[in-house]
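Q: Given only this backbone (140 positions), what sequence would you predict?
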């Protein structure tokens, strides 16, 4: 019954993964620029734009996790309520439930990576902002 949902969720997870890891690549590049021998001047509008994207990524994952958890809950309710009058293959139902749980766990892992991206990018923005503040003693 929920097999089609799983296919769509798998595709969404693939897109979320690409988004989260591309943002991670940007954050890592920003960190490496700061640590490199030749440092480029930070592009604050770009840093803030990527910070907004990392926040949006985390928010989207939060909503997706809640949605898939709701689908799982409905799947379990349907099996409990409908088992007596609808011919549901118990093996298919169990595999569907297991896969939905796995999908939720993958999205939670991506959300953790996305939250780490947020924190790391916020740290980089704070660091370059402090370095640019006039009259501050900067120890490097």
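A: Predicted residues:
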């Amino acid at each position: 019954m929920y097999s089609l949902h799983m296919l769509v969720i798998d595709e969404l997870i693939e897109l979320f993964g690409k988004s989260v890891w591309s943002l991670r690549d940007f954050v890592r590049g920003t960190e490496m620029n700061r640590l490199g021998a030749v440092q480029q001047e930070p592009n604050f509008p770009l840093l803030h734009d990527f910070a907004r994207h990392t926040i949006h990524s985390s928010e989207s994952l939060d909503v997706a996790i809640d949605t898939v958890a709701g689908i799982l809950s409905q799947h379990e309710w349907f099996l409990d309520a409908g088992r007596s009058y609808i011919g549901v293959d118990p093996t298919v139902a169990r595999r569907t439930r297991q896969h939905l749980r796995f999908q939720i766990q993958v999205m939670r892992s991506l959300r953790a990576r996305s939250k780490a991206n947020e924190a790391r990018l916020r740290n980089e923005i704070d660091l370059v902002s402090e370095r640019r503040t006039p009259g501050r003693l900067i120890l490097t």
